[in-house]
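Reply to thread "Modeling small-molecule complexes from scratch"

Following up on the discussion above, here's a worked example others can learn from. I took a protein sequence and the SMILES for calcium ion and predicted the complex. Inputs first:
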Amino acid sequence: MATGTIARKSDHWFKLVDVNGDGRIQKSDLQALGERTLSHFGYDKTSAKGRRLVEAYERAWVVMVEAIDTDKDQEISKEEFRAYMEGNADKQNADALLRPITDAEFAAADVDDDGLLSPSEFAELLRAWGLSGTDAEQGAANIDTNRDGLISSEEYFKACRDFFVVDNLDSRVGKVFGQVK
Ligand SMILES: [Ca+2]
Ligand SMILES: [Ca+2]
Ligand SMILES: [Ca+2]
């Protein structure tokens, strides 16, 4: 059976989020993701941006267990994640899950606090997500659709959401987080 586009994107994302690489997403994976961004940009966990990011991931974990962890073992398996993404019935839920994270990650990457990221600042954020330099630069180029050289938090959030809901690997959003295999 051919693996569908959403399933492939879902597996690609899963691998980025499963920081300890044990094939399941735990609360500690989300904590590690947040900490990686903070150390990448040089913030302390107790700073305003640090606390915001830590809290965003804590809230996201609660939403994830509620919405995705069907067997309630406090771990999200690849199958549970795929089922959620393929069902994708509750778009509001996806928004509730993603928005706090993308906003807090964006704020951490917005070093000069002007509310916008340049493609090179955005590429740094993608590197913090664990992407290679080339993938990060390609992702940044793909997200800046009007080529005005600036990325807003709204554009970042929409790219993340579209990554899951747009059923097309050739679209630019399919490349924001590196080439999906
Ligand atoms: Ca894990
Ligand atoms: Ca589970
Ligand atoms: Ca900025």
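What I'd highlight from this example: DSSP finds eight helices and four strands in the chain. Residues 48-67 form the longest helix (20 residues). Questions welcome below.
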